Amino acid sequence: MATRRSWAEPWKIKMVEPLRMTTRAEREAAIAEAGFNTFLLPSRLVYIDLLTDSGTSAMSDRQWAGLMLGDEAYAGSDNFYHLEAMVRKYYGYKHLIPTHQGRGAEHLLSTICIRPGQYVPGNMYFTTTKAHQERVGGKFVDVIIDEAHDSTSDHPFKGNCDLAKLEKLIERVGANNIAYLSLEGTVNMAGGQPCSLANIRETCALCHRYGIKVFLDATRAVENAYFIKLREPGQAGKTIAQILREICDCTDGCTMSAKKDSLVNIGGFLAVNDDKIAEAARNLCVLFEGLHTYGGLAGRDMEAMAVGIEESVQYDHMHARIGQVEYLGRKLIEGGVPIVRPIGGHGVFIDAGKFLPHLPRDRFPAQALAAALYVDSGVRAMERGAVSAGRDKETGAHLFPKLELVRLTIPRRVYTQAHMDVTAESVIELFQHHRKIAGLRFTYEPEFLRFFQARFEPVGGQSILND
Question: Does 467 qualify as catalytic in the annotation?
Answer without folding.
Answer: no
